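Q: Got a minute? One more chain.
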Amino acid sequence: MSLKHYILYISLYGCVLLGVMYAFVSFFSPASLSIVQWDASWYIDIAHSGYFFLADKHSSVAFFPLLPWLIRLLPHNIVYLTSALVALNVISFRCLSLTGEKNSKDLLLFLSSPLILYFFVPYTESLFLFGAVLILLALEKRHISLLIAGTFIAILSRYAAIILVPALLLTGLYEIWNAKEKTKSSLLLYGSGILSLIIGLAVVSYIQYRATGTWNGYQQTHIHWGHYLRWPTIPFYSAMGSSMLLLDQVALLISIISAITILVSFWYMYKGQPFISFSNIQFLSLCYLAGSGASMILFQGGSLDSLGRYIFATAFIYPLFSVLRNLTFKPLHLIYIFIGSSLFFLFTGSLSSVLHFIANEVIAFSLMVFYLLIHRNNNEVRPWNYLLIWATGLGIQCLLFFLYLRGDWVE
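A: Always. Here it is, folded:
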């Protein structure tokens, strides 16, 4: 059995196992545990009662309609919804493995994400994942119809897909500047994706207007929730406290590194000097991750809530694993990673106690070990280091899923 099939079978088995476990827990769990928590309650309410808008209260127009439509199509039992999401995830993971270098190690790293639990609960992550995978496949194969379908699914899933507008613009510019494809072909491809996003947003606005009589209910509701353009405050914070803040800080660090990489790439192209050559899906992923961090900083005033979910529970982190794996390893990199991430965590988060400081250093050390592991034994057929990363990620996923079932805010 090849490594590709070996990891694929593991991933499919893991998806089914997790899905069955989640469905079992939701069906037989005690009253104190529930798979319907936080945003999931809003989506289910929209599916059953439609949209509403109240100017001075939280309103359901903050959420987009694709998941409520899926809920409405299925029998009124959370087990059916969970099963449908599991099936969609299996398709998405399989399609994702067909992009980029098609290396099953990258799929294993993706399945190690600490927040993969959101692919199996009534959140929009599964639908957005499917749309994002279609986008990556479409750009790689330069298939306009597939790109339109992917972007339309993504924007109907959640508003965060609007970040793809500047991401597609920058990726198209990067591709044209590097003369990897003809200008006309690139303009048509990326222009189609951007137009699809704009039309999709207009469709959502019209649906909500028909239900509430208000065109800008989405913006007003998010302003009421404290999501509006302003200068951020530092140190950053999270509603869940220091435990979730560290995960959000790692996500923010990834966003900042992505933004710096984009700027350096354009600078080197301007100077006509060689730099890392990115494929179009890798560069789009960098733009999306950078945009997610930028929007969080600019519109949440210092709160990093949900940033980890937008980074780790999305397909756009997958194409960058191959970039990370193919970097030339130097032992000095480990020192840079540990010291750099330690300082970043200290300067961007509040140091409330000695335990928090120790947690900072543990996460910084873990990032260093992660970088070391992905550069060890890369030529082995079944490298133990990747399986170790996956097993560790699975343990964290189970812990976070239990916290979610208990009603704690987990991103």
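A: The two ends are 38 Å apart (CA to CA).
Q: Perfect, thanks.
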